[in-house]
Amino acid sequence: MRRRDFTRAAAASLGIAALRPLSILRARPTSAPTSADLAAGLAELVKKHRVPGALAGVYRDGQVMTAGAGIANLNTGQPMTAGLGYLTGSITKVWTCTLLMTFVDEGRIDLDRPLIEYLPHLTFGDMEVARHVTTKHLLNHSSGLDAGDYIEDFGEGPSANRLYVEALARIGQIHPMGKYSSYNNAGWIIAGHLMETLSGKSWHRLLDERVIKPLGATRTFPDAEDGVLHGMAVGSVPDPNRPGEHMATPKLLLPKTFAPAGATLVPTLDDNLLLARMHMRLGLAPNGNRVISEKLARAMQTRTIDHPSGPTTGFALGWGHSTAGGQVSLSHGGGSNGGRAQLVAVPGSDFAYATFINSNASDAFATELHAWLVEDFHPNPPVAPPVPTPPANVPLAPFTGVFRRMTSKTTIEEEGQGLGVTSEWIPAEAPGTEAYMIGRPVKFAMKPSAANALIPAGAKPEDRPTAWTFLEPGAEGKYGYLYAGGRLSRRIA
């Protein structure tokens, strides 16, 4: 197998579409890679992709390697160093799920009992769903609530979380409860509110007492303000006045009401890797403390539902779950204003890595970074799947139309021999996210990669790009659902 194919396949096994491999590492190392290899490779990638900076950490063979490269804060010119904290975004969900499991261990929460038994005030637009939704539906993104990215800024803490949950009374369903998984931030604010209601303590305090301290994570802060005190990276976005260049994000945080879902938590590479290592040790932290029971640690690693795109990926509890070549990978990504983070754990190989890039325009960089880490640092990389065969004569009409979910509208039209896509973010439905969307593409071209899937028009099959999947064709053959970016959108026209 050629090294290029192997790189792409390794990345694809983790749900990542790969580009060309890192130029300075043309052959897989014959000896165990070192911290110097990590630092040199990361520095070259930062330079190649012209992003401000990045962090990368690897756990392998009982050892942790970390590196930083580039600039951490374009406002100050501070260098990116491995010990800096960073906004971990939605990787927070793995931390929050771990916290919730401590309540399950105590018998205070049953994952399969209706939430309304704990929260009698729970109200959705569809009250039948509100009466039957369970905590498990929250943890594997299968509630169907059309609030995947529904954001309201009610402040921070227990009162804010309760106000947010009360606001869900006007939110309907994007799909029937339990039928599909569709990434849902609202579920994690409900989960935070549940724990606060049962304990009388804030999510911030609970996370610190029940997870951060037992784990031995000395540089993880539920409040970003505390992270700033100890040094942290700042996100960057494309500079509208200097094409190809970046500027520091004009706003540090997403609305703090999203804290349990991923707005304020600041760990370091070492601490995110501690979390991954604890899960790979089935609830036992490297310092010897048991954070959650082995039973629940196994539950967090067990697939509970497939993604709508197919059976190779799905959700466990908290973690994303993928399988390739008989090898299970647990992962979660995290976005912030001008930043993107990733945490991956491979329990069967006792291997994990964590990354942060302080740019929201870093798709190609993230793809190549993760492919390289898998290929050159993974002790037992998965075997490459075959390159998909391009389809022929796929009708375009079934894809065309308008698809909608809360905060997003996608319009697909035939243009020449292909499809033109307009992807609109609805700011009025997500106040406080303006900085998050700076530089995001709005119009682009796509082409079929299967009878029910689209990929970017310029992508090659061997690149294994992440596809948009379409579901439930109607009487006229047009698809009823679009699955993209982990979220379902429903056809409205």
Q: Give a count of the beta strands, DSSP E runs of length 2 or more.
A: 19
Uncertain runs? 1-26
The helix/strand class is alpha+beta
Mean pLDDT: 92
Largest β sheet strand count, sense and barrel closure: 9 strands, antiparallel
What overall geometry do the principal axes of the alpha carbons give?
globular
Our estimate of the beta-strand percent is 15-25%
Task: Set down the secondary structure blueprint.
Elements: H1 3-13, H2 35-49, E1 53-60, E2 63-73, E3 78-79, H3 92-105, H4 127-132, H5 135-139, H6 158-167, H7 186-199, H8 203-215, H9 224-229, E4 236-238, E5 246-248, H10 269-280, H11 294-300, E6 305-307, E7 310-315, E8 320-324, E9 327-336, E10 339-346, E11 351-357, H12 363-377, E12 401-405, E13 408-415, E14 418-425, E15 443-450, E16 453-456, E17 468-473, E18 479-484, E19 487-491
Antiparallel strand pairs: 1-2, 1-11, 2-3, 4-5, 6-7, 7-8, 8-9, 9-10, 10-11, 12-13, 12-19, 13-14, 14-15, 15-16, 16-17, 17-18, 18-19
Helix pairs in contact: 1-12, 2-12, 3-7, 3-8, 6-7
